[in-house]
Design goal:
By secondary structure, this protein is α+β, with helices and mostly antiparallel strands. The protein has helices at residues 9-13, 16-25, 35-42, 105-116, 133-140, 176-181, 185-199, 214-233, 237-253, 299-313, 361-373, 377-390, 395-407, 411-424, 429-441, 445-458, 463-475, 479-500, 506-517; strands at 2-6, 49-55, 64-75, 82-87, 99-100, 123-129, 148-151, 166-171, 204-208, 257-258, 260-264, 267-277, 282-290, 318-320, 335-338, 340-346. Strands 1, 2, 3, 4, 5, 6, 7 and 16 form an eight-stranded mixed sheet that branches. Helix 15 runs parallel beside helix 17 (463-475).
Length: 519
């Protein structure tokens, strides 16, 4: 088995044909592992993602047999900072997992596990894992409790008691009446009566989102959803709405979304968002929103019945209610599947290998900079140094660490950082100015003077370069040299003015001065 790391959209897009071949062959495959859904999701999320792609051998043309999509993040709440791995679909996917061609599980999954143990992370969240028992055991065999901390957080709601690891689904027959015959007599009669009431009414109607109405229909769905869930989810609601909107609009544009709305006149009563898996012939009920003040025919039952009938008429074989064992789902003739939520952690809470994941350096730098601004200097210093362990030429981290060290009075250490910075960014006047000021603070006057000369060359309009150089020449008892250079430059100014009718400007003056003083 040969493991490759895929982490750019062009390289992922080149996998489409191979990905679909494995997806179609894998009985555990589901929409949230499909190429199209993931391609849309990867373009939406901000955190770094990657895919562990497994070939059957190390031959360059060997077929791909397995894929594990992941995303990684950095956590800065504790020192040292650490990384967490999540399944790529979190936090929009109700299911996650590994794609694998049947017959290759015993080779591919251990290869994935071995690669995972070479990566930099302290916590691996296997959230909403949907995979067979055999595959799960193959994976977890490589993370023994003697070496790793293994936990299984509860996903039972504290308020409503809903078990979100139970996922009801209905197997759909080839005709609508056959489906209804499998329901209880009461449910069968209720569904027939409600659909007849809607379809024969001049008052009620069902519309399905089109390119012209999708924005309006999504607005309605998310407005209803926000009203219902804000009391329970609080400050999480705005980010959840943004995430859901982004995922659903991209799904619609990719023909992955069925979005019916129930109306009474011009008043929307409820909207049902269902994802469509054409390859596996499955409908996946994702979310709903309804007018909680409406007192009339039950909108949820009507829209689910409408969607199930539509799915059957179009040759779909499964209607998946996804996570949660809410009681109403069981009236639709469902079975259950159970998913898992497992957390694998290192024993010491630190990254495997002791270093940050290089992919998360930009996010880490942003967080460390906020710590720095907040005056949490010891934490910020450790954070900058962690970043530089994996990205030794990160100019922003070097600059900010140098500034931090300067603020604490450690000018010797600051000088080292700024010296490195001038090598990385020789054309940045700020790097030379910081180096000059550190040398000056250490009474290294000649080095400071040389650095100030570079400042003047690069930024002649900056007075700090002139004043700094003047101070250093004074310390070096070379004031006469400074005065002579100024006289020479000013004399050149007068001659230039006489020739051209105007002075050459401060940039030319500074450049000439720096050139003169370098001799």
């Amino acid at each position: 088995m040969q493991v490759e790391v895929i982490e750019t959209m062009p390289s992922f897009e080149r996998l489409e044909q191979d990905w679909n071949a494995v997806y179609d062959a894998d009985p555990d495959a589901q929409l949230f592992l499909s190429f199209t859904w993931l391609a849309n999701w990867f373009q939406w999320i901000a955190s770094p993602w990657l895919i562990l792609a497994v070939r059957a051998s190390d031959a360059p043309d060997a077929p791909y047999v397995a894929f594990l999509p992941l995303r990684t993040s950095v956590k800065t709440s504790e020192i040292p900072f650490h990384n967490e791995l999540n399944m790529a679909g979190n936090f929009a996917a109700d299911y996650t997992g590994i794609l694998c061609r049947p017959g290759f599980e015993h080779q591919a999954i251990p290869a994935i596990a071995r690669w995972l143990k070479q990566m930099s992370w302290a916590r691996f969240n296997l959230e909403n894992i949907r995979m067979s028992e055999a595959r799960y055991r193959l994976l977890m065999a490589h993370f023994p409790k003697a070496t790793f901390e293994i936990s299984q957080p509860s996903r039972v709601g504290k308020v409503d008691g809903i078990d979100n690891t139970l996922c009801p689904f209905a197997t759909l027959p080839s005709d609508w009446n056959g489906y209804l015959d499998g329901l209880s007599a009461n449910t069968r009669q209720k569904i027939r009566r409600l659909l007849k009431q809607i379809e024969s009414s001049d008052e009620y109607r069902i519309t399905v989102a089109t390119p012209e109405t999708i924005e309006r229909d999504l607005d309605t769905l998310l407005r209803f959803w926000e009203i219902k869930w804000t009391p329970r989810k609080g400050n999480l609601v705005p980010s959840l709405i943004r995430s859901n909107r982004g995922m659903l609009i991209r799904s619609f544009k990719s023909d992955l979304l069925y979005l019916p709305t129930l109306w009474k006149g011009d008043q929307p009563l409820a909207v049902l968002a269902t994802l469509i898996d054409q390859r596996k012939r499955s409908f996946l009920f994702y979310m709903t929103g309804r007018d909680e003040t409406f007192d009339g025919p039950p909108p949820g039952v009507i829209l689910h019945a409408h969607s199930i009938r539509y799915a059957i008429e179009n040759g779909f074989t499964e209607y998946d209610f996804l996570r949660g064992n809410e009681s109403y789902k069981y009236s639709f003739g469902v079975k259950e599947r159970r998913i898992r939520c497992i957390v694998i952690g290192t024993k010491n809470g630190r990254n495997i290998g002791g270093r940050l994941d290089r992919r998360t350096v930009p996010a880490a730098l942003k967080e460390v900079t906020e710590l720095h601004k907040a005056g949490k200097l010891p934490q910020a210093e450790k954070g900058y140094r962690q970043i530089l362990e994996v990205d030794s030429e990160n100019a922003d981290a070097i600059h900010r660490l140098g500034q931090l060290l300067t603020s604490t009075g450690d000018h010797t250490a600051a000088r080292r950082q700024f010296k490195t910075l001038t090598a990385i960014r020789p054309g940045a006047f700020k790097a030379w100015l910081c180096l000059a000021q550190s040398c000056e603070a250490l009474a290294q006057h000649l080095d400071a003077a040389n650095a100030y000369r570079q400042v003047i060359k690069l930024q002649p309009n900056l007075s700090d370069g002139f004043s700094g150089l003047g101070r250093m020449l004074h310390k070096l008892d070379r004031v006469e040299q400074f005065d002579a250079a100024m006289d020479l430059v000013l004399d050149g100014d007068r001659q230039g003015t006489e020739r051209n009718g105007r002075p050459p400007g401060r940039r030319a003056v500074g450049a000439a001065l720096a050139s003169t003083l370098s001799h």
